[in-house]
Amino acid sequence: MTSTDTPSSGAAEQARGSAGAADRRRWFALAIVMTAAFMDLVDVTIVNIAIPSIQRDEGASFSQIQWITAGYALAFAAGLITGGRLGDIYGRKRVFLLGIGGFTVASALCGFAANPEMLVASRILQGGMAAMMVPQVLSIVHATFPAHERGKVFGLFGAIVGLGAVSGPLLGALLTEWNLFGLEWRPIFLINLPVGVAALILGRRFISESKAPKALKLDLVGVALVTLALLMLLYPLTRGRELGWPLWGYASMAGSLVVFAALVAYERRKAARDGSPLVELSLFKVKSFAAGIAVQTVFGVGLGIFFLVWTLYMQVGLGWTPLRAGLTGVPFSIAVSAAAGMSVQLLVPRFGR
User: Fold this and answer.
1) Cα–Cα distance between 19 and 318 in angstroms, integer?
2) Which one in 117, 226, 231, 272 has a CA-CA gap of 20 to 30 Å to 280?
3) Does the pLDDT of residue 205 top 70, yes or no?
4) Residue 158 and residue 350: Cα distance in Å, rounded?
C-alpha cells in the first residue's frame, strides 16, 4: 500500500462509487416514471385522430365513439385521488407497477377489441389503471430527488407533457395511415405493449419503494358517489340525442345534482370524523385554488370538445387523410410545450402565479 492508499481514501472512493450508482438509479427511475406519464398523455390524444377509422371498422355509433374518449377520462378522474392514496398506504413503487401492468393489459384488450362495447369497457379499464399509475409519478419524484433538484425535474416533466401532446395526434395519424399488418386503428393501442412491459421490468429494478409516513384513509364511498353522479349526468348527455331525449334522461341528470349534494354532505362528515375525505372541501374557500380549478375545468372541457369535433370534421366532413388531420394539431402542441416550459422556468419566478 502506498502512502496515498490509506483505508480512509479507499472508504471515500467506495462511498463516491455507491453515491454515483444511487444517482444513476434515480435518473433511471425518473426516465421510467416519465415514460409512464408520456404513455398516459399520448393515450388521451391518440384516439381522437383514429375515431373515423374505428367508426368505419367497428360500426360504432356516435354515442359509443364519445364513450371511447369519455370512458377513459371518467375512470381516470374518479380514481385519481384514490390511486394516490393507495400509493401512500401500500407503497408507490408497488402501486405504480400494478398500474402500469394493468394499463398494458387494458391496452392489449383495446387493440384486440371485437366490438365497440368491448373497446369502451377496455378504455374504462385503461383509465382506471392510469389513475393508479399517474399519481405515483410526482410522489416518486418527491421521494427520490431533493428539493433543490425538483425545479429541474419538473421542467423536464413539462417538456414531456408537451412532447406527449405533440406525439399523440401525429403518432395516431401515422399508425392509422400506415395500416400496419392490416390492423387499421389497432396499433394505436398495441404500441403500448412493448413500452409497458419494458417499464414494468426496469421499474422493478430501479425504482425505490416509498410510503407516506401518515397516509390518509381510503374514501371508497366518496369514489362511488362521485362516479355515480358523473354517470347519471354524462350517460343521458351522450345517449340522449340517439334515443330521442327520453324522460328518464332528464330525470337522471336532475338526480345527479341530488347525488352531488349527498357527496358534499358525506365529505363534510368524513372530514370531521377522520380527516380523510376524497375531496377536501375547505380548499374551495381559498380563492386562488377555486379560481384555478374553475379555469382549468372550463379549459379542459372546451379543449376536449373542440378536438373531438375538429378531428371528426376534418376526416368525415372534409375527407382529409388521418395524417393531414393529425398534422393540424402539431403547431398547437408545440406552442403549448414551449409556453409551458417558458412559464415554469421564466415567467412564474419573475411575475408570480
Assistant:
1) 58
2) 231
3) yes
4) 18
Nearest one of 74, 131, 82, 87 to 278, comparing CA atoms: 82
- CB atoms inside a 10 Å sphere around CB 64: 21
Q: Would you state the cell numbers that stand for residue 9, as one nine-digit string?
A: 481514501
Cα 212 to Cα 28, 90, 139, 203, 336: the distances in Å are 22, 9, 9, 19, 33
**Residue that wins the pLDDT comparison between 170 and 90:** 90
Phi, psi angles (nearest 5°) of residue 69:
-90, -45
Burial of 177 (0-12, 13-18, 19+ CB in 10 A): middle
Q: For the chain, state the CA radius of gyration.
A: 23
Of 93, 104, 102, 201, nearest in space to 141 by CA: 93
**Which of these, 31, 352, 350, 342, lies nearest to 158 by C-alpha position?**
342
Distance CA 92, CA 100 (A): 12
Between the alpha carbon of residue 175 and those of residues 47, 167, 181, 192, 232, the distances in Å are 11, 12, 11, 12, 35
Q: What is the pLDDT of residue 15?
A: 47
| Contact between residue 131 and residue 147 where contact means Cβ atoms under 8 Å apart | no
**197 vs 331, residue with greater confidence:** 197
Cell, residue 48: 381522437
Mean pLDDT within 260-287: 91
At 220, the amino acid letter reads L
Q: Which three cell numbers, joined as nine digits, stand for 229?
A: 353522479
Asked whether residue 6 carries a pLDDT value surpassing 70, the answer given is no
**CB contact at 8 A, 201 and 104:** no
- Set out the domains of the chain in order of their start, with CATH numbers: 24-215 (1.20.1250.20)
Tell me, what's the pLDDT at 152?
77
3-state helix, strand, coil in the chain (%, to 5): 85, 0, 15
The per-residue pLDDT for 249 is 93
Q: Are 163 and 40 in contact (CB under 8 A)?
A: no
Burial 225-235 (b: 16+ CB within 10 A, else e): bbbbbbebbbb
CB atoms within 10 A of CB 259: 19
